[in-house]
Amino acid sequence: MTEKIKWNHKDLVSLEPLSKEELIYILETAKSFEEVLKRDVKKVPTLRGKSVLTLFYEPSTRTRTSFEMAAKILSADTINISTSASSVSKGETLLDTVKNLEAMSIDAIIIRHSFSGAAEFLSKRVKASVINGGDGRHEHPTQALLDILTIWEYKNILSGLKIAIVGDILHSRVARSNLIALKKLGNEVRFVGPATFIPETFRELGAEIYYNLEEGLYDADVVMALRIQKERMGSGFYPTEREYARCFSINKNSINFAKKDAIIMHPGPVNRGLEITSDVLDDKRCVVLDQVTKGVAVRMAVLYLLLTGGKVEN
Amino acid sequence: MSKSKKEIIIIDEKTFPRVINRIAHEIMEKNPDLSDLVLIGIKKGGSLLKERIKNAIKKMEGIEVLSGDIDITMYRDDIFKISPKHKIETTELLFSIDDKNVVLIDDVLFTGRTVRAGIDAIFDFGRPKRIQLAVLIDRGHRELPIQADFVGKVVPTSRKEIVEVMFKEVDGKDGVVLREKNDRKNKVES
Predict the structure, then answer these.
(1) A288 with A164, same domain?
(2) Residues in chain B whose beta carbon is closer than 8 A to a beta carbon of chain A?
(3) Best mutation site among A2, A8, A24, A47 for testing chain B: the one with the most B CBs within 10 Å?
(4) Least Cα separation, residue A34 to chain B (angstroms)
(5) Which pLDDT does position A91 carry in this prediction?
(6) Of the partner residues A25, A31, A44, the one whose CB lies closest to the CB of residue B124
(7) For A5, which of B87, B90, B170 is closest by C-beta distance?
(8) In terms of CA atoms, which chain B residue is nearest residue A40?
(9) Alpha carbons B80 and B86: distance in angstroms, whole number
């Protein structure tokens, strides 16, 4: 009577190796965990005795807090390392740092790093489960999963939607993870922005590219604005912020190009007035805070699936 | 070979609703104040049984008692051992269970571990006045000191056997059968 699935992944580094069924399975598991977040007593004993480490080489508010909340609600113990306060600032290498931490019996490591591929590098060298909390421009799998869980809640379907992702695609790991997962589920993914932000090669990954905001947003079910990642870029991507905002900002006029019931998303943190204006952020179609809530549920699901991936047949 | 595999009918389609009616009667007898009564089914078999008991009470008394469903996957004691794993279902307990008389309902009582997990889950939602246990089949082999207050039928079994409870809603017909373990590959004991 019980539906079952075989879960054979140790790590969550990328959404690429996951099948459509596995993606849906994570999302369904997250949906069940959402109920726990609504309880008075937000605690279940599922991961009692497991240790979860967050190792962040880049700043983070949402992702780290959300992973920590998720682990704690599942009764796992959490340890946070921020690199500025650790031996990393003394020059210890990533692998040495992690090997030493793993020697203290860590079961899962959530890593954020500015180098693309850092999570994959680790996952092949440690026994603990490695979860990618964002690696350079590569991927941010749990962000895409929480985005899709949010879309699912508002649109009630997982496929056949038109999703416009607008802004700094080039530097965005969120855009890549979303593209991979949304395509697997059977959606139309549009990358919208100036040519400097959208390499042509994304067409090969299945994205449709629009250099004009009106065309890109036309008939979209979901509009996702991305942060202009000033810390990752030099100059020359756009003439001035004012000009960028005039052409590509999601504001109360440009949002009308999308469907009337389109939802507005942003992975945060937001540059208010640059990629999206304050009035749109405060619009009732804007689901940014729902995304954050869903983030905890998604991370509970990921931790649960990776850490309970038992091998013994009952 | 396959012909020699036996299947014993424990409760047939005709008797099934009568057994449920009897359990419903016994629950009401022990809990005269139906406004304090809460039925909680353990997903999925227990939830289906809970719905039936709830309907039986409604038919007899005209009262819709409070009810909810819990999924105990998060509370299992073998969560790191089972693979493939059970899918987590949503728990639906949308009211306070403080000071209520809770009847926990499952289809088959076996080792008692599911019930233990169910009791733990209930305590995360509040402090009931009392928890009683209702099951359709008690098949023995307890590994924990747990016993049911309301039992449809006690069936002595061997560990090699499987008790399969069928509900019209999902299986097309009502009934309980006992069969050998290898008969159906994917079935795990409840």
Answers:
(1) yes
(2) 44-45, 71, 74-75, 78-92, 120, 124-126, 170, 186, 188
(3) A2
(4) 8
(5) 84
(6) A44
(7) B87
(8) B125
(9) 12
Domain annotation covers residue A284: yes
Instruction: Give the pLDDT band of residue B81 (cuts 50, 70, 90).
Output: confident
Which chain B residue has the Cα nearest residue A301? B88
Assess contact for B110 and B98: CB atoms under 8 A.
no
State the Cα–Cα distance between residues A103 and A169, nearest whole angstrom.
38
Cβ separation B82–A7 shorter than 8 A:
no
Q: Are residues A118 and A150 in the same domain?
A: no
- Which residue from B175, B141, B183 is spatially nearest to B158, judged by alpha carbons? B141
Residue span of the structural domain in which A297 resides: 20-140+293-307
Matching CATH number, B19-75+90-158, of 3.40.50.150, 2.40.128.10, 3.40.50.360, 3.40.50.2020: 3.40.50.2020
CA distance B144 to chain A (A): 19
Both structure tokens of B43: 């997903």
Residue B1 pLDDT exceeds 50: no
Residue type at B177 in one-letter notation: V
Q: Does A21 touch chain B (CB under 8 A)?
A: no
Q: Evaluate the omega torsion of the peptide bond into residue B87 and state whether it is cis, within 30 degrees of 0.
A: no
pLDDT of residue B184: 52
Two tokens at B174?
């009502």
- Letter string b/e over residues A275-291, b meaning 16 or more CB atoms within 10 A of that residue's CB: bbbeebbeeeebbbebb
ipTM score above 0.90: no
From residue B132, alpha-carbon distances to A36, A305, B115, B117, B140 in Å are 24, 33, 11, 14, 18
Please answer yes or no on whether B125 and A312 come within 8 Å at the CB atom.
Answer: no
Report CB contact under 8 Å: A3, B87. Answer: yes
Pair (A152, A217) in one structural domain: yes
Total length of chain B:
190
